[in-house]
């Protein structure tokens, strides 16, 4: 070939060693490669390793069980899996809770989607009055942690037989059946009131993105409204409905707070509360095995999701901007719709918040009379006859310590998660067509698969003792024991939130044209300069809105942290949870109310100043 | 100032071979335009030179210094090539003022503050945008943004200035102004410029030489007027010129004395050996295509000696010139006259074609076999 001959003729000689040297230099100085390397190593240590570690420990005999099964600690065993799947306790330990969880998850998903989609449609496509007010009100449930709602539920419905004191309804003379106060119905109701907001956010975003021309086309052909809804609109939003289903299903499968509040007292266990009680009883390896089952279910659900809607997802964004579409007149139904919606919102928003506040003001639970109201639990000094002189929350130094802890955790973890999310977003956006980019994208997605409580269990397994290796007689600590430390909480929170932060980071980075970076590169700026002076300043807004979203999520986080928190490292949700566990509901309500105020404030700031889209945050 | 040599450059995107064994030399102080239809590899070539893309094969040298040696995986960092690039999208940093955008390169190089101020103001003045120094890019019009982008690229006095379709986002009037602006800039600074465009007018009017690409292959490198008068192939001939060149099928015969006789609807012509290229077959009859520029066709009274007779098909006066379509047999031949003129439709006319000024291409290879006598 002429081309090759010319090359041989040229004065340049080819050197294999120079090629190798350059290869090394390119591989190790390319910032993209460095970022990929760091991401893969970090995710390997923080996600893959703990997961494998947890898998392994379910096959390893723990010292506590060694005697019982006549084995030696640490040897390979199928004891836990056998015990879980095939023993006298299997029924109570696995099958019943699993059935309960599946029942709850499927009912909650179906109900939430029905309610959420209906409201979404009303909000986007009908001439509902006062849309501004309603659209604000319907997402408030998202800001109230689900366990706060279950506290409100209890104080409304509980009967003196189980709860010790009467709830609001019993007090005013309504006989509340037991199945309504505690158990599956209560759990399903509370979770539905919580998760419908997710369905609403996803479906309404999808409805808005549909180009109304598609519907107008149907109108031109002369299709009746209802038929258009069924044949055109519904198929178009179907992908978002399905993804809402998956999201809600896997979230309610793994949720801990609500079934803990509303189920454990009547021995109604779900898989997540079973996991928790196993850990509390030091049966950690059993708990890990249960976690793996939870993870497997979540993974299967998400796999099916990708199979089913993976290809159809594409047309959810057809039309992009959408347009002004003609809204459907509700005509005579308008008044009825408004009343029903208002009642629903009253039940979902005002009732929980109202009950929380009301109960926090009640000296004695169950007594809803005016004389019983007090600010004791807010600002009281503490008297020996009320809960062993526990002072009111606002004058309790411990509260401020916990508040400080919470804020510290939230700020540090969300900053770390958001910053790492931006970096991973950079890798994802620049490496979209490369194997390395997709690998990082897949790795960072793993924490999303793992329900919060299982993720917490995983970190417990990973960090309960120091990981060391012995090299030439020297012991090197690969990973210190972090159990009980604040650092562990930061770590677990940051890693669990990486899927969200890197998703918003990717979206953010995709908005920054590569040419802006190339222009800086041409100007002689090295990678760090380009990051510091071009990319990060440009991603500031996305950074802030991503930060706010994670901030809100972390503020109300209970499931993830509940098994990792030690007395020194309490957070607000945990404080509320432990007050309730101790029967000190009023204190718990005060804490929950304060926390809701903080979350609402953050939401307001995020929405007002950073234009944050909260549907990115779950 | 610098000369750049590209040797055997190959660039693949996956299995897509976008640059095919490219060899190109850009001389010191030259204004080299890379021209071609979209997707032909011209922008990729520019990005390979800039260092933003790494070729899989080949060597690039600047003044003899190797900046790319693909076989040894050596790629000089873009920042160390003493080049700068003006992007098609301008790629101005939206969070910096005009001054900061232009000062960026200098501040990265750790140059003293007062010198930066001095040089930035100089560059802004040169591009006549000094009054916008404190504005942000979003507060400027497209033309002003363009000037900022050029100021940013020239402030560091690069040896080579690369421009990627810089005028394509401007409206027609601004484009003409910017053309003269860039040409003047080249004259004043004497920097080597490599300019990418798909607009033949830009290429013809501004460059010292044009490299024309089709599908990743460099088809011809020549001075603009040579390229126009003697396009190396049918593809080049078809791409250059507006209105487009007339192609007329014919038959070529190589005579015993080495001359070439062509038969076609515009008559029989014979060309002496001195006008022929080495692409011509050694003997025999073969199909050819005549390429005749519209302005080289004169419209005369029908029946004049040595003319081809046709009928007026349509007349399109545009003020400065008039484009006339004439039907000869089944073919339409386009002629262009300076100024305003008019002919009745279907009127018979004679077409006078100067054999010296036409090109002949071998139909099979598409290569030029008879060159035109160059006008200067």
Q: How many beta-strand elements of chain A?
A: 2
Number of helices of chain B: 8
- Please provide the ordered H/E string of secondary-structure elements of chain B: EEEHEEEEHHHEHEHEEHHEEEEEEEEEEE
Structural domain count of chain B: 2
CATH fold node name of the largest domain in chain A: MetI-like fold
What is the typical, i.e. mean, pLDDT of chain B?
92
Description of the molecule:
The complex is a heterodimer of chains A (618) and B (376). Chain A is mainly α and 618 residues long. Helix content of chain A is 70%, strand content 2%. In chain A, strand 1 (467-471) and strand 2 form a beta hairpin. In chain A, helix 13 packs across helix 15, helix 14 packs antiparallel against helix 15 and helix 17 (271-280) runs antiparallel to helix 18 (284-309). Chain A is globular, with a radius of gyration of 27 Å. In chain B, strand 4 and strand 5 form a beta hairpin. Chain B is α+β, with helices and mostly antiparallel strands. The longest helix of chain B has 18 residues, at 172-189. The chains are: A mainly alpha (618), B alpha+beta (376). Chain A binds chain B through residues 3, 6-7, 10, 12, 14-15, 18-19, 22-23, 26, 513, 515-516, 518-526, 529, 533-534, 537-538, and chain B through 7-8, 21, 23, 50, 52, 59, 66, 69, 71-75, 78-80, 83-85, 87, 89, 91-95, 104-105, 108-109, 152-153, 156.
């Amino acid at each position: 070939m002429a081309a090759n001959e010319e090359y041989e003729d040229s004065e340049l000689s080819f050197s294999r060693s120079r090629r190798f040297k350059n290869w090394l230099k390119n591989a190790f100085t390319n910032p993209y490669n460095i970022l990929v390397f760091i991401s893969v190593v970090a995710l390997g240590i923080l996600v893959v390793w703990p997961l494998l570690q947890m898998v392994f420990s379910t096959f390893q005999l723990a010292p506590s069980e060694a005697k019982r099964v006549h084995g030696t600690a640490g040897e390979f065993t199928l004891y836990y899996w056998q015990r879980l799947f095939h023993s006298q306790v299997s029924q109570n330990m696995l099958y019943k809770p699993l059935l309960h969880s599946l029942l709850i998850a499927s009912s909650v998903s179906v109900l939430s989607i029905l309610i959420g989609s209906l409201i979404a449609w009303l909000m986007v496509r009908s001439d509902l009055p006062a849309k501004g007010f309603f659209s604000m009100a319907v997402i408030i449930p998202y800001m109230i942690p689900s366990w706060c709602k279950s506290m409100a539920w209890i104080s409304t419905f509980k009967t003196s037989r189980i709860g010790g004191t009467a709830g609001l309804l019993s007090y005013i003379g309504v006989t509340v059946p037991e199945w309504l106060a505690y158990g599956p119905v209560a759990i399903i109701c509370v979770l539905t009131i919580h998760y419908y907001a997710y369905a609403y956010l996803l479906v309404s975003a999808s409805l808005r993105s549909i180009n109304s021309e598609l519907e107008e086309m149907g109108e031109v052909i002369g299709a009746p409204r209802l038929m258009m809804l069924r044949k055109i609109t519904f198929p178009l939003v179907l992908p978002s409905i399905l993804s809402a289903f998956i999201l809600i299903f896997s979230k309610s499968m793994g949720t801990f707070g609500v079934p803990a509040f509303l189920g454990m007292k009547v021995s109604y266990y779900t898989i997540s509360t079973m996991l928790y009680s196993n850990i509390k009883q030091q049966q950690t390896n059993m708990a890990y095995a249960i976690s793996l089952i939870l993870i497997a279910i979540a993974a299967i659900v998400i796999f099916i999701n990708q199979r089913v809607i993976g290809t159809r997802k594409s047309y959810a964004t057809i039309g992009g901007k959408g347009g002004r579409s003609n809204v459907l007149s509700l005509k005579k139904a308008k008044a009825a719709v408004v009343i029903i919606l208002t009642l629903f919102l009253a039940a979902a928003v005002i009732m929980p918040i109202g009950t929380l506040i009301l109960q926090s003001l009640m000296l004695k639970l169950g007594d809803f009379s005016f004389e019983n109201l007090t600010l004791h639990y807010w600002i009281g000094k503490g008297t020996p006859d009320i809960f062993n002189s526990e002072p009111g929350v606002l004058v309790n130094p411990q509260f401020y310590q916990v508040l400080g802890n919470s804020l510290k955790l939230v700020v540090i973890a969300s900053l770390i998660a958001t910053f790492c999310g931006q970096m991973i977003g950079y890798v994802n956006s620049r490496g979209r067509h490369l194997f390395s980019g997709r690998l990082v994208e897949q790795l960072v997605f793993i924490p999303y698969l793992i329900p919060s409580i299982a993720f917490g269990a995983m970190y417990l397994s990973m960090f309960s003792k120091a990981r060391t290796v012995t090299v030439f007689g020297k012991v090197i600590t690969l990973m210190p024991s972090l159990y009980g430390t604040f650092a562990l909480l930061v770590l677990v929170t940051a890693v669990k939130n990486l899927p969200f932060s890197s998703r918003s980071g990717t979206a953010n980075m995709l908005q920054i044209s590569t040419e802006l970076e190339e222009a800086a590169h041409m100007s002689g700026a090295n990678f760090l300069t380009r990051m510091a002076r071009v990319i990060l300043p440009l991603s500031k807004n996305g950074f802030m809105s991503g930060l706010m979203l994670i901030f809100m999520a972390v503020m109300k986080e209970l499931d993830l942290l509940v098994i990792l928190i030690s007395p020194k490292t309490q957070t607000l949700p945990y404080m509320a949870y432990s007050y309730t566990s101790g029967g000190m509901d009023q204190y718990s309500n005060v804490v929950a109310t304060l926390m809701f105020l903080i979350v609402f404030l953050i939401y307001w700031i995020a929405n007002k100043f950073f234009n944050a889209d909260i549907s990115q945050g779950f | 100032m610098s000369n750049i040599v590209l040797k055997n450059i190959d660039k693949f995107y996956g299995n897509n071979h976008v640059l095919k064994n490219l060899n190109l030399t850009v001389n010191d102080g030259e204004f080299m335009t890379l021209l071609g239809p979209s997707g032909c590899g011209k922008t990729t070539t520019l990005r390979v030179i800039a260092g933003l893309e790494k070729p899989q094969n080949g060597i690039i040298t600047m003044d003899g210094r190797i900046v790319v040696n693909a076989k040894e995986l050596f790629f000089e960092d873009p920042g160390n090539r003493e080049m700068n690039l003006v992007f098609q999208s301008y790629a101005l940093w939206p969070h910096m003022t005009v001054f900061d955008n232009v000062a960026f390169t200098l501040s990265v190089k750790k140059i003293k503050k007062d010198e930066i101020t001095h040089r930035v103001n100089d560059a802004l003045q040169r591009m006549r945008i000094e009054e916008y120094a404190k504005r942000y890019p979003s507060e400027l019009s497209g033309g002003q943004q363009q000037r900022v982008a050029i100021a940013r690229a020239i402030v560091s006095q690069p040896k080579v200035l690369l421009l990627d379709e810089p005028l394509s986002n401007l409206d027609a009037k601004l484009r003409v102004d910017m053309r003269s602006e860039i040409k003047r800039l080249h004259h004043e600074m004497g920097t080597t410029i490599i300019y990418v465009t798909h607009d033949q007018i830009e290429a013809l009017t501004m460059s010292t030489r044009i490299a024309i690409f089709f599908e990743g292959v460099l088809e011809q490198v020549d001075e603009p007027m040579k390229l126009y008068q003697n396009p190396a192939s049918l593809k080049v001939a078809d791409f250059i010129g507006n209105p487009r060149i007339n192609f007329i099928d014919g038959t070529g015969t190589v005579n015993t004395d080495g001359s070439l006789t062509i038969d076609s609807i515009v008559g029989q012509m014979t060309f002496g050996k001195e006008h022929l290229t080495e692409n011509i077959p050694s003997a025999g009859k073969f199909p050819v295509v005549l390429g005749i520029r519209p302005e080289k066709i004169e419209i005369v009274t029908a029946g004049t000696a040595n003319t081809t007779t046709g009928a007026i098909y349509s007349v399109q006066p545009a003020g400065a010139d008039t484009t006339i379509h004439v039907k000869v047999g089944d073919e339409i031949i386009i002629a262009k006259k300076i100024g305003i003129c008019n002919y009745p439709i279907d009127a018979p006319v004679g077409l006078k074609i100067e054999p010296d000024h036409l090109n002949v291409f071998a139909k099979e290879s598409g290569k030029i076999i008879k060159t035109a006598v160059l006008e200067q």
